[in-house]
UniProtKB/TrEMBL annotation:
It catalyses: (2S,6S)-2,6-diaminopimelate = meso-2,6-diaminopimelate. This is Diaminopimelate epimerase. The active site is at residues 82, 224. Pfam families: DAP_epimerase. It comes from Pseudomonas saxonica.
Length: 285
């Protein structure tokens, strides 16, 4: 017989889905091959990312951080931030703490989160985007508002970093683009030494756009919170949209992005608890 291991919670934000394990009392740091197995849709629980809750570091706790979030991709690699993951974890920690807001430590910085009273949705203050070419990073000095590439219909992008790197391509007809084919090519472009998340966006009105994101390490997700923030910031920087509040429609649903005059981005959307369970004891590090 098999033995039950760690309890986990499965959540999603617009079908961008996560396995959440609480490692605050007992650390949880499985190797990459185990993370890949856990996240496998075919052979495991299935998720876009594994999230591990840890105690906040001393420096972050001094600033008021309630907990630290570690984020692992399906290949076991660790990433610094994820908007939808932060919203899902914030939902849990807001209920646990019974506070009006919660500060979550991530590799990309401390993110302030709260529940929208009117809608019940979770908002995250994602900070500002970085447009410096070496901070994306790009392999050489480049105008990040006009990144030239040659991958089928994906010819010109905006490069940004919001704790993780993104390229955003604006197109006239999103549905006509073969995202897995061309975004995968762009993701492997020599200009991207650390790869990047590839967003393909279509402006559909003064306050709305459609977006599909091909995420590192090479998966098509139903939604991407940081990608939505970067798409809005890119559109405003290019003068394609002037509104400070934009609805971003993705395959999994819609997120609302607000950007103030200082460039601060606020991400708002729904979160859902799908189910709870236990990993196997063999999944322990």
């Amino acid at each position: 017989m098999f033995k039950l291991g760690r309890p986990f919670l499965k959540m999603h934000g617009l079908k961008n889905h996560f396995i959440i394990v609480d490692g605050r009392e007992r650390s949880f740091a499985p190797p990459p091959d185990v993370i890949a197995q856990i996240c496998s849709v075919d052979a495991g629980v299935g998720a876009d990312q594994l999230l591990v809750i840890e105690p906040a570091t001393l420096s972050a706790a001094t600033l008021g951080a309630y907990a630290r979030m570690r984020i692992y991709n399906v290949d076991g690699s660790e990433v610094q931030t994820c908007g939808n993951a932060t919203r899902c974890l914030a939902d849990l920690l807001l209920k646990e703490s019974e506070a009006d807001q919660v500060l979550i430590e991530t590799g990309g910085g401390n993110l302030r989160c709260w529940r929208n009273e009117a809608s019940g949705q979770i908002s995250v203050a994602m900070g500002t985007v970085n447009l410096e070419w070496h901070s994306i990073p790009l392999a050489q000095a480049t105008d990040t508002l006009n990144v030239r590439m040659n991958h089928g219909p994906l010819q010109q992008a905006v490069a940004l970093n919001i704790g993780n790197p993104h390229l955003v391509f604006f197109v006239d007809d999103l549905q006509s683009i073969d995202i897995p084919r061309y975004a995968a090519q762009a993701q492997q472009d020599p200009l991207l030494p650390e790869s990047a998340n590839i967003g393909v966006a279509q402006i559909i009105g003064e306050t709305a756009m459609r977006l599909t994101v091909w995420e590192r390490p090479g998966i098509l997700t139903q939604a991407c919170g940081s990608g939505a923030c970067c798409a809005v910031a890119a559109a405003r920087a290019k003068g394609l949209i002037q509104s400070s509040i934009v609805t971003v429609y993705m395959p999994g649903g819609a997120l609302t992005i607000e950007q103030d005059d200082m460039g601060q981005l606020i991400l708002t959307g729904p979160t859902v608890v799908a189910f709870a369970g236990h990993l196997l004891e063999t999944h322990e590090a």
